[in-house]
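We emphasize that the prediction below concerns an isolated chain of 316 residues; any contacts that depend on oligomerization or on bound cofactors are therefore not represented. The input was used exactly as deposited, without trimming of termini.
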Amino acid sequence: MNKQRIISLFLVIIGATFWGIGGTVSQKLFQDFAIEVNWLVTTRLLIAGLLLLTVQYVFKDRSQILGVWKNRKTAVSLIIFGLLGMLGVQYTYMASIHHGNAAVATLLQYLAPAMIIIYLLLRKLTVLTKRDGITVCLALIGCFFLLTNGSLSQLSVPPLAIVWGVLSGVALAFYTLYAVPLLKQYDSLVIVGWAMTIGSVALSFIHPPWKMDFTSISIEAYFYLIFVIIFGTMIAFWFYIESLQSLSAQETSLLGSLEPLAAVLTTVFWLREPFGHFQWLGTACIIGMIIMLALYKNSSSKTSQRLNHKKSLRVS
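Result of the prediction step, given as a token string:
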């Protein structure tokens, strides 16, 4: 195994783990430090987006940063992607964490691949395969156990957390499909960096990032904020993208399943959130679905081609 491959493996593992832990740290900010969801989403997207564009400017083709705005059709698509895709994913994900916990929010968001398969089937853009059927079944079974802990009479997760989590999956499905034409023309750092910036500017009209009593935030809370914005967003995405230089999409997707695993483990063992036996079974089903999608290779499958674009768009 060459040195570059070892480095890439390290980068994707760190990136996926940071994403998962970032959700749990966000939960800590909501619960223990009364950080407002709108403010955190706005601030996170603004700083991380500008930093990703800076990385593009310093290390990659800087002409793309402004070049993406020169074509009117592309510019309109980027704005739609930033508002409905990026902002939609980030806000619903954080709202689900706020009303529930990071473990459930992350796992519900990972229902997106199953949602994409169903969407493509309804649009008759693909045919139902055995693999697709197993994928959807694993997603549904995992979701049932995760949300009910095996009970047929009551939910083990607050309803609002479920609503926002499912909406997060829907938003991620849209985000994944809509970005395909943009990613064919421009680097993912440019698309995601601008999308984050656009989403943060839009949300700033509701909750400007500067409207915060910064003196009331403790040093500990600042530490967590830095982790969520820098490590859990910007560095996680950068590391993940860099790993694609030496690893296959299959390998990065497979190792990317560490994200929901990290979210579950840190939520349960660090924040001491209760997690039942059947919820662990539901977690295993959803992570199994992710692994199965990663291991499945069929270049002629339209479903696989669309799902594979998610490898360049990780944002949790």
